[in-house]
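Predict the 3D structure for this chain.
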Amino acid sequence: KADDTGKNAYQGFYENSGLEFDPIDILHEEGDGIAMSRWIFSSDGKTVDVDKWNAFAKLDNGGGDVWVPRGCWTYGARNQDRFRGEAPRRPLVAFHNGAVFGQIDAGTDIFRRDFDADAVEKFSGKWITGWEAAQKGGKGEKPYRSLRVAEDAKWMVDPFTPAEKKAEPIKPGTQLFNDIHALALAGNNRLYAVHKDGRLRVLDTADGSVVAERTVPEPMWDGLAIAGGKVYLSTQSGEVMCLGSE
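Done. Predicted structure below.
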């Protein structure tokens, strides 16, 4: 119902506490109103509708509808760290139909997970709460949402970090980072990933093997795009480059 009291109702908060539901976001037009995350304000500013699913966009991706967080890179799931040292940026993700490609938090692992109707049906809508994440993170555990998405992954590889470096222990409280700063999925079964230092890797989506690599200028966050068979990169220096054909 529309809330004429002006209060922010936290409808479905614990059900979706791992997602886009803090009361901050980029404002956008939604029908006849203005939306901020799941709150839709009337054009006259007098009422607020609360729709816990409004933080998602329902997209037709060629093989059925897909629900995608609208603000997946605009801000963190909470407006504060859940535990000391949590990576300040969210891991990037790309998808087509039921195939999801993403980065594991606090590292450079890339995974592919395939969702069919059965996997979607079994996937629980309840995510880890901030309190539980704080408890586990403080003990050096890994309360990462991306690990849950990557369960039963078809493959998981790390094309950037040497095995000996990955084996080094990380002390609780160490500042973590998500160092893959660009990710894009091409139509020819290739996944493009760019490290923050400019290392570009092209992965075969079938098995995660690296089929090509090169060095490019340091990318802007989420700065890869593919259009018309060409690969484009936005750089830290403010340029837009065409890297060639996909």
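The chain has four helices and 18 strands.
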